[in-house]
Design a protein that fits this description.
The protein is α/β, with parallel strands linked by helices. It folds into three domains: 8-98, Rossmann fold, CATH 3.40.50.720; 102-304, Mur-like, catalytic domain (UDP-N-acetylmuramoyl-L-alanine:D-glutamate ligase, 3-Layer(aba) Sandwich), CATH 3.40.1190.10; 313-446, Mur ligase, C-terminal domain (Protein-Tyrosine Phosphatase, Chain A). 31% of the residues lie in helices and 20% in strands. The protein has 14 helices and 19 strands. It has helices at 16-27, 43-54, 86-94, 101-108, 122-135, 156-162, 205-212, 275-288, 295-298, 332-338, 361-366, 379-388, 399-409, 431-446; strands at 8-12, 31-35, 58-60, 74-77, 113-117, 139-144, 167-172, 188-191, 224-228, 243-247, 252-254, 257-260, 263-266, 313-318, 321-325, 346-351, 371-375, 392-396, 415-418. It has a six-stranded parallel β-sheet, with helices on both faces. A six-stranded mixed β-sheet has the order 14-15-19-16-17-18, sandwiched between helices. Strands 3-2-1-4 form a four-stranded parallel β-sheet, covered by helices on one side. Strand 16 (346-351), helix 11 and strand 17 (371-375) form a beta-alpha-beta unit. Helix 1 (16-27) runs parallel beside helix 6, helix 4 (101-108) packs parallel to helix 6 (156-162) and helix 5 (122-135) packs across helix 8 (275-288). The longest helix is centred in the last third of the chain and has 16 residues, at 431-446. The radius of gyration is 22 Å and the shape is globular. It starts with 7 loop residues before the first strand and ends with a helix.
Length: 448
């Protein structure tokens, strides 16, 4: 019997993660109340309300953001709910357990979890690890914070509730999900990198970094941690009993290739021929090999991995002009890294809501692009840094207008690259919505 059976659980938020938690907890016998501050006539709530009401979940919309009038045993916030939310502050004062999405998932399943976090690259490493496991005959489920990948994917709580011991849950994990973990213990885990991000949520970079490292807190000698010797900021804090596999020894990136023992993979053969792809491959192979596999077994399947939607996704080409969608890029470091994966003169489309104060990496971006075409709330902030790097800049009110300008300025051999370096919430529902909109604009222009 599940430890949640008969428990009164409050799920906060009715987006993808909250709906998945409510569904899974209800299936395990919990008495679930799901709340959302949006009104019942919000289109985004129609499907969750229909589904969860049919499962017997109590739904509260236009929720005032407090828990004083609710009788609950456990609070389960969606990842987007910040720790300083009044309901969570009140729950702590009352001594109520607050459990994150991944903590609940861990308690629901006997299946091993592979957990991947990091500022950049985690979606690709997650999807590639899953691809290698499935291709090698393992029962792998792609889940967690990953969304808009183009692969079949589930919320981690839905995957956990439906899993068996033979499954392997391969999960992208965000810092938000790690804020309320207690017993969560992945069997294999890695942090790809840590650079400034989400500083609109965390008091400092140090707090953000420490939250990421909570992924390792309960791992022991039968578990595997993959670390990159070149990224010491991603190492587990203090002593760690887990097995350590390293990029630098077990996988060696040299120039334009990565080597696993006597097997070498060249960068030009990868889904995006760039240095960061070599490191992403190294992370994925070393994680997959935790489960009774060897590099020689999984490496033949790398060629069939085509990358992810919204992550340096090639949309199409017209008159020698390539169009690439990197809508998932929401910070300056990711924007800089994305330039390694494109060729020719770059017409960069960027903008939205900046999540960091330090825009220093954009100076280097500015030195590498032919033109920066900016839009959205913080376009002017980006413009100053990019212009300092030498980029020609222009500012527009919308993505539509920015794309029209890029098309007008492009010539054969150029790449139009959407790599916003910002969150999307000023003009779009999320990065997926932004990427879908850009893809439509591009395909209309291409005629696809």
């Amino acid at each position: 019997m599940s430890e949640f059976a008969g428990k009164r659980v409050l799920v906060i938020g009715l987006a993808r993660a909250g709906t998945g938690m409510a569904r899974a907890l209800s299936a395990m016998g919990a008495n679930v109340t799901a709340v959302d501050q949006k009104s019942a006539d919000s289109p985004s709530l129609f499907d969750p309300i229909d589904e969860l009401s049919g499962l017997g979940v109590e739904i509260v919309t236009s929720w005032p953001g407090t828990i004083e009038d609710l009788d609950v045993d456990i609070v389960a916030p969606s990842p987007g709910v910040p720790a300083k939310h009044p309901a969570l502050v009140s729950a702590l004062q009352k001594g109520l357990p607050i459990l994150s999405e991944i903590e609940i998932a861990y308690r629901l399943t006997a299946a091993p979890i592979v957990a991947i976090t990091g500022t950049n690259g985690k979606s690709t490493v997650t999807a590639l690890t899953h691809h290698l496991l499935v291709s090698a005959g393992k029962s792998s489920v792609l889940c967690g914070n990953i969304a808009g990948s183009g692969f079949e994917e589930k919320t981690i709580t839905s995957a956990a509730a439906e899993s068996s011991e033979e499954d392997i849950l391969v999960a992208e994990v965000s810092s938000f999900q790690l804020e309320w973990v207690d017993r969560f213990r992945p069997r294999a885990a890695t942090i790809t990198n840590i650079t400034p991000d989400h500083l609109d949520r965390y008091a400092s970079f140090e707090e953000y970094s420490a939250t990421k490292k909570r992924i390792f807190a309960n791992m022991n000698g039968s578990d595997r941690i993959v670390v990159n010797r070149a990224r010491p900021e991603t190492f587990p804090p203090g002593e760690c009993a887990a097995e350590i596999a390293t990029i630098g020894e077990d996988a060696i990136v040299e120039g334009s290739s990565v080597r696993f023992g006597d097997i070498s993979v060249d960068m030009e053969s990868l889904w995006v021929p760039a240095e960061h792809s070599l490191f992403n491959l190294a992370h994925a192979v070393l994680l997959a090999c935790k489960f009774g596999l060897a590099p020689a077994v999984v490496l033949p399947f790398v060629g069939s991995f085509k990358g992810l939607e919204n992550r340096l996704e090639f949309v199409g080409e017209k008159d020698g002009v390539r169009v690439v969608n990197n809508s998932m890029c929401t910070n300056p470091s990711a924007m800089l890294s994305s330039l390694d994966g494109v060729s020719g003169r770059v017409l960069l489309i960027a903008g939205g809501v900046s999540k960091v104060d330090d825009l220093g990496p954009l100076v280097e971006v500015g030195s590498k692009v032919g033109q920066a075409i900016l839009f959205g709330r913080d376009a002017r902030k980006l413009e100053a840094a990019l212009a300092t790097g030498g980029a020609s800049t222009s500012v527009f009110g919308s993505l539509d207008d920015a794309f029209a300008e890029a098309v007008k300025a492009a010539r054969s051999g150029d790449t139009i690259l959407l790599s916003p370096g910002c969150a999307s919430f000023d003009q779009f529902e999320d990065f997926i919505d932004r990427g879908n909109h850009f893809r439509r604009l591009a395909r209309e222009w291409i005629g696809a």
